[in-house]
Specification:
disordered C terminus, nine-stranded mixed β-sheet, three-stranded antiparallel β-sheet, about 650 residues
């Protein structure tokens, strides 16, 4: 008989003994049932023992509490569950109670039964190679150890207050000033192919040799630790570190964990970070950087639930704090998220970006803009944000290892500016015709959706009628953040984000007095007038908005135009408006595109009268008015909201 078989037999025997002991204690003192609350019937290996716990729980729930006088009722319940004879069940109850000499250890025995059950599930998961169940079993064992050690609240935990006068303030200890700090959690995010892991290896290599950061800062030499669930240690990570000039004596990889039974298993960051922290502390080495690729693997549960992600990341935060290393978690970005704030583009819960003290992002640069990649600092809670650096990825042979090649990083120019602007520059479309088409489509969609949701099919049909291709409409919708939702009638409708609609400004609200169809509001939104009376041209492909500084008179004229068009819409026939709107849309096809080249070389949308953009705006507004006039019943003059005439008069006085 092998040692493994003997250990298995002993574990099985221990499990049966503790199950019998626990059930006997509960039958002898049913009022102590709450001390076994950690257990479920499925934790028992014996079907008979499961039946006893089920019967006790059911009766306790119905009666509120149990005493020794309720034993006959418990026996009857077990008879119903197991379909065994009453005499047999009663005899078993007597035997179980007779073996009990004390009920003082009910809580501890419940923990033992739970642990033995969990270890059995762990063995089954290892044999079936079910990694998810393996993680869950290890997490459950850790929780049981904590309860056994008296960490749970039931055993007298207490919150500790620290008096402020006893705290000595300390400065941030930077490894790379403003970018990587000791004892803090950092996140490096980017789309696939931008070289996130390559960049992390380059930074790690510089730390091992006391090299240089991208800005030329000299780094203090320290050791580094790397764990990757995506790349091989031998053919990927090691060649990359060597290609970047790392001191491999100071590079450590996390690969396996040796169990107490002497068996090696894969390292799991979701449950094994405390073991790694202990290993780092025992090593005596000063660790500068710990790379986790990917940081999502630290989270065992749903990575989109904020509270669960924060709890799951806490061991990583504690490891960084206690070992004084910088923890760098690598992750990805969501698809089709270019128009969102950079911090919101990180895959999963906002906790990934919120808990990290510094968040960095990588992006590819179009060949027309110089090519390569950029590293941008999108968020920092401990220093300035913004700014970045260009970098290139190249490959070279590793000396002394035939056929082995590794990729390395070369740093480029320093970049200044907001993170969102720098990333937009890198991801911008550079084709002028495509830029102009998308800009026009964005204005068109804004006008169509300004008054509320619109069926996707209707929006696409309107786009085709206006001469806008389906691909251009889709790209414009993505960049604008247009959302869609399925209605009760089964039809999908598009609508603008409230923030995007509401961000027009004060003058837009006055224009909205136009009434039918919200024409005044549409005009103001199309003109992009803010609350100060300034009109901004919508730039395409550039970083800085081109502002045409106009005074309040310009804004007032726009509002008056909206009011006049509103008055025409009230008196005109719906069919006439429909005909005129379609005529304008047809005329727009041959009109100048409404995109001008600015002196700076940028392309900007120009809403000049007679341009394609202007004609489309007018045509769509008239069609929308006609549609609403047909749907809505006619209103009498008395139904006009109070205050409109006075407000219109105020604007006439301004003009």
């Amino acid at each position: 008989m092998t040692a493994a078989t003997r250990n298995s037999d002993r574990a099985t025997g221990d499990r049966a003994f503790y199950e019998q002991s626990l059930v006997g204690q509960l039958l002898k003192a049913p009022d102590r049932l709450d001390r076994a609350s950690i257990l479920e019937p499925s934790d028992f290996a014996s079907p008979d023992h499961r039946a006893w716990l089920t019967a006790l729980r059911t009766l306790a729930k119905n009666r509120g509490s149990l005493t020794g006088d309720d034993l006959p009722a418990v026996i009857e319940a077990v008879v119903e569950i197991t379909k065994r004879p009453v005499a047999e069940v009663a005899t078993q109850a007597a035997v179980l109670i007779e073996q009990v000499w004390s009920t003082a250890n009910t809580h501890d025995d419940a923990i033992r039964v739970k642990r033995l059950s969990t270890e059995a599930r762990l063995c089954a998961a290892v044999e079936s190679r079910d990694h998810k169940k393996i993680r869950a079993a290890f997490a459950a064992i850790d929780a049981l150890d904590a309860i056994k050690a008296g960490v749970d609240l039931e055993k007298g935990d207490a919150a500790i207050l620290i008096r402020g006068s006893t705290v000595t303030p300390e400065p941030i200890s930077w490894i790379w000033d403003g970018w990587i700090a000791r004892g803090k959690l950092h996140v490096l995010a980017g789309q696939p192919g931008t070289g996130k892991t390559n960049l992390a290896c380059a930074l790690a290599a510089g730390i091992t040799v006391g090299g240089y950061a991208p800005d030329g800062t000299r780094l203090d030499p320290r050791s580094i630790v790397v764990w990757s669930g995506e790349d091989s240690i031998k053919d990927t990570l090691t060649p990359r570190l060597m290609a970047n000039g790392a001191d491999m004596d100071r590079a450590h990889f996390v690969n396996t964990v040796r169990t107490r039974k002497g068996v090696n298993r894969p390292f799991d960051p979701a449950v094994d970070l405390p073991l790694l922290q202990e290993a780092i502390e025992k090593s005596g080495e000063e660790i500068g950087l710990f790379i986790v690729d990917s940081v999502a693997d630290v989270v065992m549960t749903d990575g989109h639930q904020n509270n669960k992600v924060r709890r799951a990341l806490q061991p990583l935060v504690e490891l960084a704090e206690k070992t004084k290393c910088a923890a760098l978690g690598i992750t990805h970005l969501t698809k089709a998220s270019g128009d969102r704030d950079p911090i919101d583009r990180i895959v999963g819960s906002v906790a990934f970006g919120g808990l990290a003290r510094v968040v960095m992002m990588t992006a590819k640069v179009a060949d027309e803009n110089g090519g390569g990649q950029i590293l941008v600092r999108v968020k920092s809670n401990i220093g300035p944000d913004g700014g970045g650096f260009r970098y290139e990825i190249a490959n070279r042979d590793i000396d002394g290892y035939q056929g082995v090649r590794g990729s390395y990083i070369t740093y480029g120019d320093k970049l200044d500016g907001r993170a969102r602007d720098l990333i937009s520059m890198a991801e911008a479309i550079v084709d002028p015709e495509e830029q102009g088409a998308i800009a026009e489509a964005k204005v068109f969609i804004s006008n169509c959706l300004a008054d509320g949701p619109m069926k996707v099919t209707e929006l696409e049909a309107a786009g085709r009628a206006a001469g806008i291709t389906k691909r251009t409409m889709e790209r414009a919708r993505k960049t604008m953040g247009v959302k869609s939702q399925k209605g009760f009638d089964g039809a999908w409708r598009c609508y603008l984000d409230i923030q995007k609609v509401g961000g027009v400004g004060g003058v837009g609200g006055v224009g909205g007095v136009g009434g039918v169809g919200g024409v005044g509001e549409n005009l103001t939104k199309a003109a992009n007038i803010d609350g100060q009376g300034r009109q901004g041209r919508q730039t395409v492909g550039g970083l800085e908005p081109v502002i045409n500084q106009e005074d309040n008179l310009k804004a007032a004229k726009t509002a008056k135009s909206a009011k006049e068009l509103k008055n025409v819409g009230e008196t005109a026939d719906a069919d006439a408006l429909d005909v005129e709107g379609r005529r304008l849309l047809e005329e727009a096809k041959d009109a100048p595109p409404g995109v001008k080249v600015l002196p700076s070389g940028e392309y900007a949308v120009d809403l000049a009268s007679g341009s394609r953009v202007d004609l489309r705006n007018q045509g769509n507004r008239l069609l929308e008015q006609a549609r609403k006039m047909r749907l809505a019943p006619s209103k009498s003059p008395e139904s006009q909201p109070a205050g409109d005439e006075d407000l219109d008069g105020d604007w006439e006085e301004i003009l």
